[in-house]
TrEMBL record:
It comes from Candidatus Magasanikbacteria bacterium RIFOXYC2_FULL_42_28. Pfam families: AP_endonuc_2. InterPro entries: AP_endonuc_2, AP_endonuc_F2_Zn_BS, Xyl_isomerase-like_sf, Xyl_isomerase-like_TIM-brl. Zn(2+) 3 binds at residues 180, 227, 229. Belongs to the AP endonuclease 2 family. This is Probable endonuclease 4. Zn(2+) 2 binds at residues 142, 177, 214, 259. CDD domains: AP2Ec.
Length: 277
């Protein structure tokens, strides 16, 4: 179990490994472009090699890419829909050049089409996005916090997508987010509730599909359906919750990535490492 954080690529994407090391990260996550859209800086093979050399130099063991926020595979607007397919496929190819282990994404919202039509479109579009992909980076769905008609806020909904007949051959994985899951009603504040949640995940999705986790405390109560990250131990999951989660042997090979504000991210990392011992 290794710990890291989401880091900046300001100046050049090759700055990210050093930015991660400066915070005390063992692993790190980043965007490769603005999460809100706009100019996309190119990634060439030479940039990819320099990036991976710098990851090695700064002793980073794993890195992942977060897809932009502007995507929605269930949109009724074809510009957004087909733009989502294009952008996420581009991000998989870019992440592969950088040697990233995973690319995780939120899939969007069913608000335009409703669940049934939306699900059919999501499956069709993800299959189109993954068709012919030969890169090393694995695509993951990130559990959502459950606001509105957001896609992927329950284990059942994630399973419905990754095991869809059009998608099951693509080995889509899952990125767990402690705050999002907590806001969606999955408790992790005690060893007992961690056990219940992990057993439920295993029964519905399968723990073999769990590849990485975002590590965030929560500003909102259990089941509040809001995406509100808090520093480790300062929120409603609390220090005891993270002790229960991080010491569960079923998660011993899962790496945890902070998405907390950088004002205290070094302290957050120190807390996680102390729990790990």
């Amino acid at each position: 179990m290794l710990f890291g954080a989401h880091v900046s690529i300001a100046g050049a994407i090759t700055n990210a490994p050093q930015n991660a090391a400066n915070l005390g990260c063992e692993v790190f996550q980043m965007f490769t472009r603005s999460p809100q859209g706009g100019f996309t800086p190119p990634i060439t093979e030479s940039i990819g090699k320099e990036f991976q050399d710098r990851c090695k130099a700064f002793n980073q063991k794993e890195w992942a890419v977060h897809a932009p926020y502007i995507i929605n595979f269930a949109s009724a607007n074809n510009r957004i829909r087909f733009g989502s397919i294009k952008i996420v496929r581009e991000e998989l190819e870019r992440a592969s050049l950088l040697g990233a282990k995973y690319l995780m994404a939120h899939l969007g919202s069913y608000k335009d089409l409703g669940h049934d039509l939306g699900l059919a479109q999501v499956a069709q579009d993800l299959a189109e996005m993954l068709k012919g992909y030969k890169g090393e980076t694995q695509f993951l769905i990130e559990i959502a916090a459950g606001a509105g008609e957001i896609i992927g806020d329950t284990f059942e909904e994630i399973a419905e997508i990754i095991y869809h007949p059009k998608l099951k051959k693509y080995d889509i994985g899952v990125c767990y987010d402690t705050e999002h899951a907590f806001a969606s009603g999955y408790d992790c504040r005690t060893p007992e509730t961690v056990d219940t949640t992990l057993k439920k995940f295993d029964k519905i999705i399968g723990l073999d599909k769990l590849k990485m986790a975002h590590c965030n405390d929560s500003k909102v109560e259990l089941g509040a359906k809001k995406d509100r990250h808090e520093h480790i131990g300062d929120g409603l999951i609390g220090l005891k919750g993270f002790q229960a989660l991080l010491t569960d042997k079923r998660l011993q090979n899962i790496n945890f990535y902070l998405e907390t504000d950088h004002d205290k991210v070094e302290k957050d990392l120190a807390i996680l490492k102390k729990i790990r011992g």
